[in-house]
């Protein structure tokens, strides 16, 4: 499919029909080839789009309306089923094309490994890149059962690419002992259990930097987001994640791209997970991207 043409299925609410006239491109990465527990996040982007149709276009958090920005829903990258290496290459190539066209990429996963090729593309364009990582899991493994391409490895790979001191993780409450030891010794910034308050303290230090933000929906407690592949008890509320997104918006931080991953709708018949995810995407659109 061509990504500068309108998506033929459901699109995110109020999506602009023109790629050329849009500042932001929403795209899906329907990949769950390497998940370690429950698959199904490849269906996340489609369900988030469907859930968005129930949203109000106005946000009382941002005091903005979706009509104030122009964004194009490009649909899902047609990733080859079961082939993580080729899928990663395709994602990187696609982000290269968006950055060349001077678009703000806003991705929907899919498993968290999809963030790795995105950051490889961003690293080519930005020398001073910093990453805000909001997640239940450290994602700092070098491999999972002998496989280096795993959704438990992207943040470790990103640390190696841009320098661990440029990675800021929040909400972390799960991982191997070795992952927490790596975080402590490498110079990366890991904040366990909480998100909004430690994030607010860090944001001033990122002023003037180009920042990419990746959010794993499982940072939420399973009571708020049961529809994810590796749910972890003890998480934050939807209210706290909205507070964190608003804090980034209000800080004036130069966010250059973002993604939200690991929505697996099959495990949530109530649909509260894709409904919440669609609201987070709306707030990211209104708070982190440029006006028309």
UniProtKB/TrEMBL annotation:
Q: Which Gene3D superfamilies match?
A: Ureohydrolase domain
EC no.? 3.5.3.11
Biological process terms in GO annotation: putrescine biosynthetic process from arginine, via agmatine; spermidine biosynthetic process
Whether Thylakoid counts among this entry's keywords is no
Cite the annotated pathway: Amine and polyamine biosynthesis; putrescine biosynthesis via agmatine pathway; putrescine from agmatine: step 1/1
Q: Which reaction does it catalyse?
A: agmatine + H2O = urea + putrescine
| Cofactor-binding details, from the entry | Binds 2 manganese ions per subunit.
Q: Which Pfam families match?
A: Arginase
Question: Which keywords accompany this UniProt record?
Answer: Hydrolase, Manganese, Metal-binding, Polyamine biosynthesis, Putrescine biosynthesis, Spermidine biosynthesis
Q: Which GO terms describe its molecular function?
A: agmatinase activity; metal ion binding
InterPro entries according to UniProt: Agmatinase-rel (IPR005925), Ureohydrolase (IPR006035), Ureohydrolase_dom_sf (IPR023696), Ureohydrolase_Mn_BS (IPR020855)
Give the family from UniProt: Belongs to the arginase family. Agmatinase subfamily.
As for what it does, the entry says: Catalyzes the formation of putrescine from agmatine.
Protein name per its UniProtKB record = Agmatinase
